[in-house]
What does this fold into?
Amino acid sequence: MIKQLRLRDYILIDTLEANFHEGLNVITGETGAGKSILISAIDLAFSTRVSKEVIKTGAEKATVELVIDNTKHDLKNLFEENGIDYYGNEIILSKEITQNGVRTRINGTLINQEFLKQIKTLFLDIHSQHQTYVFMQPKYHITLLDNYAKDVYGNTLNEYRDLYKKYIDTVNLLEQAKNSANTTENQIEFLKFQVNEIEEANIQSITEDEELNAELEVLANAEKLKELTGQSYWAINGDDGSIMEALGKIKQNISKASSMDNQLEELEQRYIDAVENLKDLASELRDYSQSLDNDEQRLNEIQERLYLLDKLKRKYGGTLESVLKEYDRLSEELKGIEFSTQNIEELELSISKMHTELVQIASKISENRKNYAKVLSVYVQEKLENLELPKARFEISVTETELSQDGCDSVEFLISTNVSEDLKPLAKVASGGEISRVMLAIKSIFAQSDDIDTVIFDEIDTGISGRASQSVAEEIKDLSKYHQIIVITHQPIIAAKADKHFYVRKSQEDETKVEVYVLTGENKVKALAELAGGDINEQSIDFARSLLAVN
It folds into this structure.
């Protein structure tokens, strides 16, 4: 439900904070006072199109923020998938409108229009003179009917949907199989050739070519390397005039010096270590030089291997890594073709069996839908009669369609509010007052099964009076047991049933302002009296008190 509305620089409002009740919230005020501003702000928070005209004159931007208390919907996974912080039951929906654009956030994270539409269908249903949501949409009618009868055929419908998804997946698999089966024999042979060509190359790693090039460089320069490393060894550790011979003489001198001054002992040890390291280096140079041979056979092998690898790289992507990836892709494609050609008949048989089963289950669901559609049509028509639409006819139409995830039915609400008119789709009802009462009647029936949090009626009492007003008031109050209701009304009978009563007042002093007050006690009595008689007098006060007494 909508817990709180916060506005800043919105139309005629500087700042506003309105805290709504979980039951029936009534908004009243004089004509032209700006009652619809609250409703428009709530609607705007959920809207994907916003006009910059809502920015208060002289302000840089307008902000609208809703604090929503969510107790019906599990949104944790949805929020996490979209990178939105999840705070449990509390959701903060905010909209910032500037001259340059609009930003919409949920819990501080920017969201796109599609996500906002998805959220709106869960939390808000508005019925006004110019707009209705959810119930007016034929695509939602089948959901309403199914939700109402979920205890009867809900499990069967879920079973059907699981099977239907499997059916669609298998149909798609068959389509892929048929496409693969249409591959020509030449194409298949070429695929096999490519797979075998890479497979027979037996590539050792994605760096094999680099390693072979390094080895090739050594083999190509073996003579020169042998000469250079051999000469270096003899220069270090030869018989006469070598570095080691000179270092031996230096060693004798340092030893004599350290025997005279023990501070030189550390330097002597470091010198000894350096000489040992040089001996090790000489040994490694000798071993390396002796290991080199002019291996012409190995040289030829490497050149042939590199030629093969280069050919594969030119054909399949430029690197050995890309060659191996292409091998995996080609292998899977070949396996798919071989699998597909062998299993088309098996897939077709499976699809046929599933289709037969789907038709049987859908028929059972359809039969239940038609039975419940008749019952609900009677219930809604009775509600319409109570709401001063005695000539109205209402029918839930269930017609056969092709199999879909919902079965084999198309469901649409039809209505006629005049004796002389035929039944028409609900969306084509012309009168705003009729639409609101029709919506109220439908809402009353489906209230216990749908999951929408907040229902708003903008001047639902248009064109009604007397007993109809009382009936509308009672229906709204009953509906508020299952949904949060926000209603703009001119009827004291409706306003008297409010759990929370908001009064909107427009002042025009230095500038035009709209202010909102919560009425309690005598202020509420006076507001009801004003609605009842226009003037606040003893008679209207008594009438207002009598209304409150029975509520």
